[in-house]
Structures are given as C-alpha cells and as structure tokens.
Here is the input.
Amino acid sequence: MASHLIQQNIEALSSPSGHYSHIVTANNMSFVSGLLPLDKQGKPLADKPVEEQITQVLENLAACLLGINAKKTDIAQVKVYVTDINEWPIVNELYAKWIGEHRPARLVAGVKELHFGSKIEIEAVVIKE
Here is the structure.
C-alpha cells in the first residue's frame, strides 16, 4: 500500500546522515527537517561565524523550496534554534533580508547545543496552494 506521505531528499544538499528525510509532504503541506549549516558535501561550518552559518542554512532552505517547487511566500512557519541568544540580532537581520516582506509564524529558541557544534538550526513548514 502506498503511503500518503512523500519522503524526499534534496539532491543539492548532502544526504541525511541520520534516519530521516529532508522533507516529508502530505497533500499540500511540506515539513522541512532541521537544517544545519552544512555545505553540499555535508561538511559542518560550526567553526565559522554565525553570519556564515545562517547564510548557509538559508541557502539550504532555499534548495529545499526549489526541490518542492515552492516559494519563500509558501513558508507558513519556521522554528529557529540558536546556541547564543546574544547573536539573535544578526541572525534576525540576515533572515529578514533573505525572506523579504513575507512574515511566517516563527519560534526562536535558545538551546544549549546543536549537532556538530553548530550555532543555528532552522526547520520549516511549507504550504502550497
């Protein structure tokens, strides 16, 4: 029996190293797994400044949107996890510049640590017409 869930990995991103898919879609809703600052080869950018990390995460999110033929304006919600809440202003500035006038629902959470020692992780819910 075919599943009503479509599991998808994005070719432009490194293959998941854990037991998950980059995106799972049900009907017109797509759930984007937490995106870390990993380059296309899967190399963590944890030793880079937060500006480079958020830029890479947003590039990864853009690749996910492209992979499901979605636009930034289809993003309904994002959840942003940061390890240093004091870096939030620069993260917010770069995120706002990337997403433009669109304002999806958003959660920002300060966390103790993220995988690979990353400073930021973003997950998203995308709804297409």
Notes: Strands lie at 6-8, 23-26, 29-35, 75-82, 105-110, 120-127. The domain at 6-127 is CATH 3.30.1330.40 (60s Ribosomal Protein L30; Chain: A;). The chain has a mean pLDDT of 97.
